[in-house]
Please model this.
Amino acid sequence: MNEAEKTIESKYIQQHLANERTFLAWVRTAIAIIGVGFLVTNLHFNMESSLNPFGNFMANLIGISSVGLGILVIVMSMVAYLKKVRSINEQTFRTPRMSIILLGVLVAVITAFFGVYFVMVNM
Model:
């Protein structure tokens, strides 16, 4: 390949490959978050001894919020991936602080739901 055939992206191959690996890691994380929500909901409704209105509400809330957070993680990671492609090529990369803070807060909220659920089910 001669110098005229090279693309802008080929100058930064390592950064683009790292960006793709990061995107795939976020997708795996989203799948895990969704899976945990399904697991808690499924286990709750298979344990007849723990069925009560508040437990049912919390199990449903955990399931729905986990699926919602998983979808949000996938969408945010796709947006971040596309922004990073452009910023790598333009050499103007900035760290995505706000999206990381937002995702961290949302994961903490779902973790709090888990805590409330497990405390209330074991009472």
Notes: The chain has a mean pLDDT of 87.
